[in-house]
Amino acid sequence: MNDRAVSVLSEYDFEVIRTWKGRGAILFETPEGIRILKEYTGFTDKLIMQNTLLTHIRENSDLSVEEILPNKEGTLWTKDQNQGTYIVKTYFPGRECSIRDNEECKRAVELLAQLHTIMRLPEKAGEEVSIPRMENEYEKHNRELKKVRKFLRNKSQKNDFEIYLMKHFDSFMEKAFEVTIKWQECHNPGYYGKIADQGLWCHGDYQYHNLLYEDNDINVINFEKCVCDSQVRDLYLFLRKLLEKNNWSVSAGDSLLEAYERKRPLSKEELRQLYYRLAYPEKFWKIVNFYYNTGKSWIPGRNMEKFDKLLKQEKEKELFLHTLLPD
Q: 3-state SS of the chain: helix, strand, coil percent to 5?
């Protein structure tokens, strides 16, 4: 982020004492505290909705979430001279949630359950909202997997990674198709309508990077991916990332689910969705997608390591899924 971005700060009604560069952003000090300037690449309508959600959380709970600060004209975004869009938010100086600390992770899912209880905007239910259907998302992934498999099959000379990938490709792709079909067969078609009617919202990217511990408080940041959807979406993402780091430990998974349900019990429909979200081989799709959309002539060793780890964890993952197996 360059000096042109810093010039945007003149459009805000606060005194800037000093600025310094952060990760993909500019931090600056004001008499009221530290703030952060970030480029915004989404739609402004989405930003307004994000601000509505954040305001609702702050006004209806004591949970600590970021705030988008308006400029002098009262607008949530500001354009620079090149028409780039920027936003200013409050900043928390805490450290990220430790994925190795089970107690911290349990606190994080308890907080998520509290957020989900608050993140209901039934007054917005009459407005047209696009809910991302899980089956559509997985059908798109499946088409991409078929495309990559065809590409690999037609490739005459394959490197070690591609040979290794092809050896296991069919089994993962069969699993992806099986999960998609079973979810379509078992889920309630009216489920998404209920979500819209109740005005249920998700953080959209609830993971340890976006949870900052400061003294005894947890601050939640980066709501840019917030979406009206089943709140299982957030729980799934947090669980999957933690369980991948903990070799799909049944005890770790159970303790996290129990912590969440102490604050917000899951319905049978939500438990079923959680099972199928975890059962879908999303990590495999991510590895394949990264391979296909980057330079295929050079495969980072890290990519091979991720795939090797994925294969080694399959048995443990199946054991954990068995504990969630729906009726």
A: 55, 15, 30
Could you tell me which residues come within 8 angstroms of residue 323 by beta carbon, excluding any fewer than 6 positions away?
250, 253, 254
Tens-digit pLDDT profile for residues 70-84? 999 999 999 988 888
Question: pTM of the full predicted structure?
Answer: 0.91
Cα–Cα distance measured from residue 1 to residue 6, given in angstroms and rounded to the nearest whole number: 8
Q: Which helix (H) or strand (E) holds 305?
A: helix 301-324
Closest alpha carbon to 45 in 67, 82, 77: 77
Separation between Cα atoms, residue 140 and residue 156, nearest integer Å: 27
**Structure tokens given for 226:** 């917030």
- The count of C-alpha atoms lying within 13 angstroms of the C-alpha of 65, restricted to the half-sphere facing its C-beta, is 27
Please name the helix (run of DSSP H) or strand (run of DSSP E) that holds residue 201, with its range, or none: strand 201-202
